């Protein structure tokens, strides 16, 4: 990168917030995906105005800019494919406003997802999207990828909670999109097009998120199966029975054993599949829904169904799912993760198809 451009970057961000050394470029050449492309410079923003000045410079000099949170993405969204400048947003991590009366929180996009819940929990609220990288992924990254998580079945994904955002456009203009009002129907839904855009349309620097009341009660259970097909059919049948669990996670034998080798979470190594299921809401409702779930599980020939007796048991069950990716990566460092989406009624057919293909090609 030309020295004149680096000098301008230093003028905008300060010397301590501009990196150009080769070893630093290596550190920012990849995320949780497998591709690696070294940028020409890395800058750390601390204000929206700095981001605006950067984009004006980059637009004028025709330099690509790739925004980056914590680099936890699995789809390569923060890899600088055209080199240029990586814009690190993790120093923009302040809570700007917490408004419990309206169930809203406004934050800078470099804040980690996990940092939000302790703040809002004091008002008996929570932020539902909980991706597997919840402990270190940033809100900006979640929005850029439209992240979901374990609670997605009932509570939806990131796009369902974005109310308003401040965005720096490619030419450096700063705009505010959306509204804090629940009913915001006039004109185009402009903020929605930035959710899932992976930084292609602009750089989000602030966002207002809607929150939900913490459910009164949670029921958590583990269903164990000797048949993959029965486990998959159970998922479809639970939904057909009129129950929408807050969480329903499917794990096969390979995943179970990888987790147990990585961290002992008490999962049965001989099971062909397990389902982690949680219902929540008013206590009577959550218990009634779990009773329906139990009926469906047993009708599909589960070998065991156990409801967690306390919070420690529940947390231990779900700890396994939280470490699943790391556990699988420890078995095969070149692990490639793909999210496959099918209609719920087609899940049994999909599981059978994947199992057959894996067997045919001797792939785990």
The helix/strand series, from N terminus to C terminus, equals: HEHEHEEEEHEHHEEEEEHEHEHEHHH
What is the approximate shape? globular
What CATH calls the topology of the largest domain is: Alpha-Beta Plaits
Which stretches of 5+ consecutive residues score pLDDT under 50?
A: none
> What is the level-2 CATH architecture name of the largest domain?
2-Layer Sandwich
Determine Rg (CA atoms, Å): 23 Å
What class, by secondary structure content?
alpha+beta
Q: Strand order across the biggest sheet?
A: 5-6-10-8-9
Beta-strand content bin: 15-25%
| Major sheet | 5 strands, antiparallel
What is the total number of structural domains? Answer: 3
- Distance from first to last alpha carbon: 43 Å
- The pLDDT mean sits at 92
Give the helix tally: 12
Secondary structure: number of strands: 15
Keywords: FAD, Flavoprotein, Peroxisome
GO cellular component, one term: peroxisome
Family: Belongs to the FAD-binding oxidoreductase/transferase type 4 family.
Subcellular location: Peroxisome
Q: Would you kindly provide a written description of the structure presented here, covering whatever features stand out?
A:
Helix 7 crosses helix 9 and helix 7 packs antiparallel against helix 12. Helices cover 34% and strands 21% of the residues. The chain contains twelve helices and 15 strands. The strands form four sheets. It has a five-stranded antiparallel beta sheet with strand order 5-6-10-8-9. A four-stranded mixed beta sheet has the order 1-2-4-3. By secondary structure, the chain is α+β, with helices and mostly antiparallel strands. The two termini are 43 Å apart. Strand 8 (162-168) and strand 9 form a beta hairpin. It has helices at residues 3-13, 22-27, 48-61, 116-121, 139-145, 152-155, 228-240, 253-262, 283-299, 311-322, 324-331, 347-361, and strands spanning 18-19, 41-44, 65-68, 85-88, 95-99, 104-108, 125-126, 162-168, 174-178, 203-210, 212-213, 217-225, 247-252, 273-281, 304-307. It is globular, with a radius of gyration of 23 Å. It folds into three domains: 3-88, Uridine Diphospho-n-acetylenolpyruvylglucosamine Reductase, domain 2 (2-Layer Sandwich), CATH 3.30.43.10; 95-213, Uridine Diphospho-n-acetylenolpyruvylglucosamine Reductase, domain 3 (2-Layer Sandwich), CATH 3.30.465.10; 217-361, 2-Layer Sandwich (Alpha-Beta Plaits), CATH 3.30.70.2190. Belongs to the FAD-binding oxidoreductase/transferase type 4 family. One of its GO terms (molecular function) is catalytic activity. It is found in: Peroxisome.
């Amino acid at each position: 990168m030309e020295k004149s451009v680096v000098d301008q970057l230093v003028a905008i961000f300060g010397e301590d917030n501009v990196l150009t050394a080769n070893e630093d470029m290596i550190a920012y050449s990849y995320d949780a995906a497998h591709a690696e492309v070294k940028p020409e410079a890395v800058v750390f923003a601390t204000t929206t105005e700095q981001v605006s000045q950067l984009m004006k410079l980059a637009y004028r000099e025709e330099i690509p800019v790739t925004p980056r949170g914590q680099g936890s993405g699995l789809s390569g969204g923060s890899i600088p494919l055209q080199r240029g400048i990586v814009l690190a947003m993790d120093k923009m991590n302040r809570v700007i406003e917490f408004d419990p009366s309206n169930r809203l929180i406004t934050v800078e996009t470099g804040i980690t997802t996990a940092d939000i819940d302790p703040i809002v929990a004091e008002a008996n609220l929570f932020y539902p999207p909980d991706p597997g990288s919840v402990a270190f992924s940033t809100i900006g990254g979640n929005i850029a990828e439209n992240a979901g998580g374990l609670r997605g079945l009932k509570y939806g994904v990131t796009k369902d909670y974005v109310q308003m955002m401040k965005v720096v456009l490619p030419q450096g203009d700063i705009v505010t999109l959306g509204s804090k009002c629940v009913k915001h129907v006039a004109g185009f839904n402009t903020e929605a097009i930035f959710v899932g855009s992976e930084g292609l349309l602009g750089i989000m620097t602030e966002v207002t998120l809607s929150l939900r009341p913490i459910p009164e009660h949670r029921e958590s259970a583990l269903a164990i199966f000797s048949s993959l097909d029965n486990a998959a059919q159970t998922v479809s049948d639970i939904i057909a029975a009129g129950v929408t669990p807050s969480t329903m996670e499917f794990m096969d034998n390979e995943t179970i054993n990888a987790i147990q080798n990585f961290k002992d979470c008490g999962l049965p190594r001989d099971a062909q599949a397990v389902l982690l299921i949680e219902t929540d809401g008013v206590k009577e409702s959550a218990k009634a829904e779990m009773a329906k779930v139990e009926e469906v599980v047993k009708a599909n020939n589960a070998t065991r169904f156990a409801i967690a007796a306390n919070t420690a048991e529940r947390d231990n069950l779900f700890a396994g799912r939280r470490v699943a990716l790391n556990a699988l990566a420890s078995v095969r460092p070149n692990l490639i993760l793909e999210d496959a989406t099918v209609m719920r009624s087609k899940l049994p057919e999909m599981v059978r198809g994947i199992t057959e293909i894996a067997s045919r090609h001797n792939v785990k």
